[in-house]
Amino acid sequence: MGFFKKNSLIFFGLGIIVLFFITRFYNLLGLPIFTDEAIYVRWAQIASNDANWRFISLTDGKQPMFVWIGMVLMKFISDPLLAGRTVSVIAGLFSTIGVFFLANEIFKNRKIGLLTSFVYVIYPFSLVYDRMALYDSLVAMFIIWSIYFEILLARRIRLDIALILGMIIGGGMLTKTNADFALLFLPFSLLFFDFRDKKRIKKLSLWIAYAFAACSIAFAMYSVLRLSPFLYIITEKNALFVYPISEWISHPFTYFFSNLSALINWLSIYMTLPFLVLVVSSFFVGKKFIKEKLFLLIVFIVPFIYLAFFGKNIYPRFILFMTLPLLILGSYTFYNLISFVKKIFLKVIIVIVFLATFVVNDYYIVTDFANAMVPKSDKGQFILSWPSGVGVKETVSYLTEKSKTEKIYVATQGTFGLMPFALEMYFVNNPNVIIKGFWPINKDIPTEVIEASKKMPTYFVFYQDCLDCVHAGMTPETWNKQTEIVFQIERAEKERYYTLYQVK
């Protein structure tokens, strides 16, 4: 018993890691493939097979780090979607470890660090995105570790810390533009600098030099993108989601309040009101760690308000990395509350009040996403409306069986995105399956499809709106005599379908 008591923190830590893998890998492919997932995974496939396309993501204005990691995992994982989602699982694992080190460094308490890791594992927001082949878990990982090493640099003023920090920030910049906030957080880390030190002038000068070195390394890493002629597209893509200063200045508050309302709504849904109470209460618990708490609030509020001001097309996933410092604040209050209460039944009540909602929501996220407590925009994109790959799994299964004995032709509604990428992912090495995307769709079946139908079984996938379609996911009425439905899946949204047709 003495051994277990002495090493209890180690066993708790191992238990958290085991719980992490259970929650992330259980039913990992249960959620249909999402449009952006199809794009990123297909890019990783192409980059893996052709070195000339290692920067393929830049053609759509996206940084390549996720794609690079994905193409490595595809060497070991045969299912492309599983490989893509495993990238986020790995990122989530490092975030779990990262919040432990960050909380421990800030509050000098391993128990608070372990509690923060546990909260991260059961946090519904991280659970959703650690299980999807999207960039956001990877961004969160780089941000957490950047903040940790920024604090270390301010406290210890060491060159080796600066070099590691530079590489971490650079990795984030190669992942997604919003990871650039790590650079902005660097000056705020001076809250951890000891200005009472007699050698403060010398140490501050060293900090400035080391911070400059870290930034130089980060920008040097980012400059590798200049090897591609498509680097300029990143700026054009960013303009679709964030207003440039030149455009924003003419209407600084036009979208601020509507954006802020949406961001607060998403935050309250994923983090829940009980846990937000813990976050706010952290500033009233004890008189210590004032600067530390202020820093955690700053690294949340600065990007949060920035997005409210400048956001053009925003989604819940954009704020995932911003919310992780709040987990540390909430865990700090939770730890102090549990430590203050002595009676077991009161401790149980506290756990139920503040964390039970997380656990219940986690259950639905991994087993029944339609009934999970997630923002409508996430539920809409992932399972209810056309960006969701509802029906893709059934289509792959059906076409795989058909292609075993004969050559088939598959046309898709769309040339970029869910279709045809979600099918190309699975049939890229199958010589019996020819896949071709078409857009726009009009009243006449494409001539190429008609010609193919004379030579081999020919299919057409419909999954979204088109100009001449009566209902989303269905062919124009003029196609009816030339097509027959193989199977059709009705989405939760009214009159929206995913349909596989055979062209007669």
Walk me through what this model shows.
With 504 residues, this protein is an alpha/beta fold. The chain has two domains: 2-379, no CATH class; 392-503, D-Maltodextrin-Binding Protein, domain 2. It is 60% helix and 6% strand. The protein is built from 22 helices and five strands. The chain has helices spanning 2-6, 8-25, 35-49, 65-73, 80-107, 110-122, 124-129, 136-156, 159-173, 181-188, 200-222, 233-241, 245-248, 256-271, 273-281, 290-310, 320-340, 344-367, 376-384, 392-402, 418-427, 447-453, and strands at 408-413, 433-438, 458-462, 483-490, 497-503. The protein has a five-stranded mixed beta sheet, sandwiched between helices. Helix 2 (8-25) runs antiparallel to helix 5, helix 4 packs across helix 5 and helix 5 packs antiparallel against helix 6. The longest helix has 28 residues, at 80-107. The chain is globular, with a radius of gyration of 25 Å. The mean pLDDT is 94.
Quick tags:
single chain, 504 residues, alpha/beta, D-Maltodextrin-Binding Protein, domain 2, five-stranded mixed β-sheet, 22 helices, 60% helix, globular
Quick synopsis:
The protein is of the alpha/beta class and 504 residues long. 60% of the residues lie in helices and 6% in strands. The model has no long low-confidence stretch (mean pLDDT 94).
